[in-house]
Amino acid sequence: MSKRSALLKDGRTVEFMEVPDPPAGGMKKVYFSPDKSYVVAFFHDQAAGMDANRHARLEAVLVKFNPTTDPETGEYWKKLFCWPTGVVSKPHLGIVAPTYPSNYFFETGPFKGKEKKGKWFSSPKLRSYLPEAERGTWINYFQICILIARAIRRLHQAGLAHSDLSCNNILIDPSRGQSVVIDIDSLVVPGMFPPDVLGTPGYIAPEVLSTQHLKLDDKARAHPTARTDQYAMAVLIYEYLFFRHPLRGPKIHSIVSAEEDEHLAMGSKALFIENPTDQSNRVPDMVGLMSDLGPQLADLFQRAFVKGLHSPNDRPAAIEWERGLIKTWDLLHPCAGAKCPNKWFVLHGKNTTCPFCKTRLSAPVPVLKLRKEVRPGQWMPDGTLVVHPNALGLYSWHVFDNIFPGEKADRTRLGYFLFHQGKWLLVNEKLASLTSPGGSRVAAGAAVELKPGAAIRLAQETHGRIAEVEMTAP
């Protein structure tokens, strides 16, 4: 091991530790800095240094499209992206990027020190090798899905596409409900020819896989875009919520070879295992179905893997996934089943039974039907919030219809729920104009009872919502 220096394009010099067998991926080999706070990654293909398009793309990614330099939200995005901080020009082309936070490396068990790539957690077989503490909880996977959708939404809003979204390029920490997008240097930049990245098997969009035999400049060949990201993102979300791949079912597409069967199953003949009209690829005895996650996510999965599977323009956008996941998050309820593998389920409509262990609710649950005022005196449905002792509480995005819980949202809790002496209560912490069903203001520190049929004004200010109380019977 020896210390070496690399010259960055902006004139800075950084040090790295040269080792004989560095960690390597498909495109780069990686060397740590002396203090391991950053890495220097060199492209395998040293001729890449002569590629003007690659240089231009890296510069655009580093400067023009970099969300981590935003003065208002940059610190937030640093948690969701491992964004490059420099372009190496000598000894040959590469990038400098922060080292992944320590929680993205296994802390215990036989894989201690290895990166927490998603397949360790989404594959039932691989999960069985992990210590219980590393597997995390289902609600944490749900949170991870929200963060993934949010990160990809931010890329797409800037006109960027990742090009190789997969379980390898988004590290996750299910023990804490966190995720980070890596391999940012392969982004598809507007106005530039996309990088020659095909993708990762299982996450390559069907149209890309079925046209990969064509030349790069063939107009019929499909290249990585936001639409292919939307497919890969939907696969990841499905895997993390159900621990199975949405296309891997029993249907045989070719008996010539396993390779050809796989190519067809993931490409031109791809068929969703929950396709409602063609059940020839349906996996028997599936535990948990898309319909069990409520109407919003069921619709998104339907659009992604039925209509949008072979019609890229029909796939839901990242912002739709982010909104749908957040709305569904408000429907999560703890499962009382002692042996429930997930410990949580989505309580929606009349569905009061956990789909993962078949345990029913043991007592009535308050459900707040949120309404917004579309014109004076006219209130329309605008979301649902399931109440339980472990609920995170009321936040500004519940109280006001014009606030979205994205990167700019104030995450100060405004109220919480309490079951006290046989009554469900909403305790006011910071709501300025919480009003009881009888029209009285509820001061900070006081509470209002959640009675069936009650209509509680959460805020009197413009965009303030009303919460109507219903009781879900067990």
Overview of this protein structure:
This protein has 474 residues and is of the alpha+beta class. The protein has 3 domains: 2-74 and 82-98, 2-Layer Sandwich (Phosphorylase Kinase, domain 1), CATH 3.30.200; 112-329, Transferase(Phosphotransferase) domain 1 (Transferase(Phosphotransferase), domain 1, Orthogonal Bundle), CATH 1.10.510.10; 363-472, Tumour Suppressor Smad4 (Sandwich), CATH 2.60.200. The protein contains 12 helices and 17 strands. Strands 2-1-5-6-4-3 form a 6-stranded antiparallel β-sheet. A 4-stranded antiparallel β-sheet has the order 12-11-17-16, with no helix packed on it. A 3-stranded antiparallel β-sheet has the order 13-14-15, with no helix packed on it. 37% of the residues are buried.
